[in-house]
Amino acid sequence: MTLKELVGQTTILTVARKAPFGYFLTDGKEDVLLHKNETDQQLEEGEQVEVFLYVDSEGRPTASTVIPEVSIGHYAWVKVTDVKPDIGVFLNIGLQKDILLGKDDLPVHKSVWPETGDMLYITLRVNRSYLLYAKLASDQVIQSISTKATRSSFNKNIQGYIYRTAKVGSWIYTLEGFKGFIHESQRNQEPRLGEKVEGRIIDIKEDGTINVSLLARKQDSLELDAARIYEYLISRNGAMPYTDKSMPEDIKERFGLSKAAFKRALGKLMKEGKVYQEGSWTYEKKNS
């Protein structure tokens, strides 16, 4: 097997000789450069060393003593370092050179592409020119590393990363190791691939996978809605042309709320003595 055929994998090579810019390693047939930027080790001729092989910008195999968690056939969570709309996103696997996840392997809509700092679960693949690229984990791979949820997890808060997106919803892998689905009705906006999100478990299926909601719990939502309305009222010097009799479409346009949610939040503010209604207006209630 040639060294190029080992690109994307680890192997043990022997130090053939030192060079001003690093070391040349050999398998007995071919030599490969271990650049000084790719190692923190002091090596001697004849010493064996474990290295990871990849191809440099000129198409030559090169070595690193940094052994990434991810390699051909092995998966790991890696961080997005850069986004190039024309070609894809770059990922840090620990080498001097970041790895590309091409745009053809990303969602059609760039609005849900990963951003810098997001995390993706990937393996590596090699093309015909022996260049390394990232490859997203399939649903089956995520299933193989997941933990089955039990009924005791119902309604618990969770955090996790989005590993797949679609119009009907998003798929999540939680920090507990649960594999879950977020239906489009259970999110205010579609999360990005690789985005870390917080939600709660709303169903546990027989196979141990979960359904997740990213919407605020009813009480939390009520608090947020009331705060939004009150903030808007204050921004208008304590008076706004909206009441519980306002048209649903006007409420939706201004606050992004249904009329029912608006009435609940307004009722909360009135009960707390913060506002009162008069005619078709709502006013801040000043403390005397």
TrEMBL record:
Q: Which InterPro entries match?
A: CvfB_fam, CvfB_S1_2nd, CvfB_S1_3rd, CvfB_S1_st, CvfB_WH, NA-bd_OB-fold, S1_domain, WH-like_DNA-bd_sf
Q: Where is the S1 motif domain?
A: 155-215
Describe the family membership recorded for this protein in Swiss-Prot or TrEMBL. Belongs to the CvfB family.
Instruction: Report what the protein is called.
Output: S1 motif domain-containing protein
